[in-house]
């Protein structure tokens, strides 16, 4: 008999199940026949196996298999929100609420991400694992529409070609519909529950359910980013600072929660497909840490390891690692090195600005605890000029910037050198110095406007 559309998909599904079952039966039958050495017993065994094979073949006729599937359907539930994610032994109701099929995928007004944000959420299955084949049948898709959607719409057309009895088709549909509903909604002692107060001492009992469909959407999105074609090459190129046309996407601070232990299938079908893993994204607000800027007292220079040397440690290490990886000098290597140096200079200028703008300590360089050189005092304590004319006059001479730039160049050379990097000399010293000095002069001129 020829079938069309969804009916053809159902017939193919049952045919594949029959093929799988009968092939397994044949293998087991051959093993039994080989193990039998007594001819009379072997003949009886052959007759028995033939009868069993015929029963199996009869069972997989669509009308018979669908009748059995309809009988087993109530043993499981198709859900979007499952109670068993709260506790694997919870016996209460789960919920089927796909929600956003008619909506475009994304965040709904109000900025809330929920199952309703998904255009085509994956449907999960809970209940008796022996009925999973029924769940897979109901999720068969043809022309963008699943069989379970036909069931929801009370449309028996996919079942009509398999029986001439209209009431039988209707009976199958009604049984399959039971996978979507729970006649006696209930919570359970092992479920998360919220008592929501109402008027006159009454309350609603709310049962908090985990959205397996939403978890699966998150899981698939993260996994596709991690293991998509070309991702490995793109990440390797990023690590080596080489060009790659593919965009590299990261999801930082992800936590992994495991459901079901060694038996994730006891929770749900989708949980089993995820290996029991669920990804949790951080919902914590940004943590702003106000920089704790210390005045550089009792030190001869801010380039000491406890001051700017500490702040720049990671940038120095990154530059060292980059230079170690580059075996040959080239224009691109020099350009990239200049970028690292510019970042260090910007970091130094930012650090100096933080010290300069400690408002309650302006004029701090007059303190006896201040051991900085005169040039660094002129640089880092500009507001002292407002109360010290000699200091202001000395600062206006503009010769202290060259000393600061020279100190920076010497510090950078010594910081970059190690056992493997011994390539820094007078040439690099001049380059570092000449990069910083004009910026210091410009910043001094800009700051004078506000003093």
What does this structure look like?
With 451 residues, this protein is mainly alpha-helical. The protein has a domain at 308-448. Helices cover 48% and strands 8% of the residues. 22% of the residues are buried. The mean pLDDT is 84.
Produce the secondary structure layout.
Layout: H1 5-35, H2 39-59, H3 62-72, E1 76-79, E2 81-82, E3 124-127, H4 132-138, E4 141-142, E5 145-146, H5 147-152, H6 166-177, E6 193-197, E7 203-207, E8 210-211, H7 212-227, H8 231-239, E9 255-258, H9 269-273, E10 277-280, H10 308-311, H11 313-325, H12 331-356, H13 374-380, H14 389-396, H15 400-416, H16 426-448
Antiparallel strand pairs: 1-3, 2-8, 4-5, 6-7, 9-10
Biggest β-sheet description = 2 strands, antiparallel
What fraction of residues sit in β-strands? 5-15%
Q: Assign an overall shape.
A: elongated
Along the chain, the helix and strand elements come as HHHEEEHEEHHEEEHHEHEHHHHHHH
N→C terminal distance:
94 Å
Helix content: 40-55%
Low-confidence stretches: none
User: What's the total count of β strands?
Assistant: 10
- Mean pLDDT reading: 84
Q: What structural class do you assign from the helix and strand content?
A: mainly alpha
- The number of helical elements comes to 16
Radius of gyration (Å) = 37 Å
Q: Within the largest sheet, what's the order of strands?
A: 1-3
């Amino acid at each position: 008999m020829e079938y069309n559309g969804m009916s053809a998909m159902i017939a193919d599904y049952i045919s594949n199940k029959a093929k799988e079952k009968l092939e397994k039966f044949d293998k087991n039958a051959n093993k039994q026949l080989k193990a039998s050495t007594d001819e009379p017993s072997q003949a009886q065994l052959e007759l028995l196996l033939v009868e069993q094979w015929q029963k199996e073949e009869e069972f997989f006729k669509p009308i018979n298999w669908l009748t059995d599937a309809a009988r087993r359907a109530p043993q499981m539930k198709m859900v979007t929100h499952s109670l068993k994610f709260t506790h694997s032994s919870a016996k209460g109701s789960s919920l089927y609420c796909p929600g956003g099929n008619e909506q475009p995928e994304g965040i709904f007004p109000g900025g809330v991400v929920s199952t309703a944000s998904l255009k085509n959420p994956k449907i999960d299955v809970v209940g008796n694992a022996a009925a999973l084949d029924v769940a897979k049948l109901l999720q068969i898709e043809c022309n963008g529409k699943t069989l379970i959607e036909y069931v929801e719409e009370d449309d028996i057309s996919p079942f009509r070609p398999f029986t001439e009895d209209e009431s039988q088709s209707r009976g199958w549909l009604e049984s399959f519909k039971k996978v979507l509903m729970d006649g006696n909604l209930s919570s359970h002692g092992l479920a998360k529950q919220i008592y929501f107060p109402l008027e006159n001492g009454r309350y609603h009992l709310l049962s908090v359910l985990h959205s397996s469909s939403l978890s699966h959407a998150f899981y698939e999105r993260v996994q596709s980013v991690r293991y998509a074609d070309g991702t490995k090459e793109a990440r390797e190129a990023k690590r080596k600072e080489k060009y790659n046309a593919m965009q590299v996407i990261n999801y930082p601070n992800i936590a992994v929660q495991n459901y079901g232990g060694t038996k994730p299938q006891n929770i749900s079908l989708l949980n089993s497909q995820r290996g029991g893993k669920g990804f949790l994204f951080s919902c914590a607000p940004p943590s702003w840490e106000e920089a704790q800027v210390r005045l550089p007292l009792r030190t001869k220079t801010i380039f000491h390891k406890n001051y700017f040397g500490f702040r720049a440690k990671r940038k120095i290490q990154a530059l060292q690692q980059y230079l170690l990886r580059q075996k040959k000098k080239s224009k691109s290597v020099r350009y990239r090195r200049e970028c690292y140096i510019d970042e260090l200079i910007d970091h130094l200028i930012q650090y100096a600005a933080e010290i300069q703008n400690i408002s309650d300590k302006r004029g701090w360089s007059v303190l006896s605890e201040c051991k900085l050189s005169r040039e660094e005092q002129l640089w880092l304590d500009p507001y002292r000029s407002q109360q010290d004319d000699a200091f202001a006059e000395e600062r206006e001479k503009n010769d202290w910037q060259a000393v600061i730039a020279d100190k920076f160049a010497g510090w950078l050379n010594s910081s970059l050198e190690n056992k493997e990097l011994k390539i820094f000399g007078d040439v690099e010293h001049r380059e570092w110095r000449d990069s910083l000095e004009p910026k210091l002069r410009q910043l001094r001129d800009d700051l004078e406007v506000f003093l």
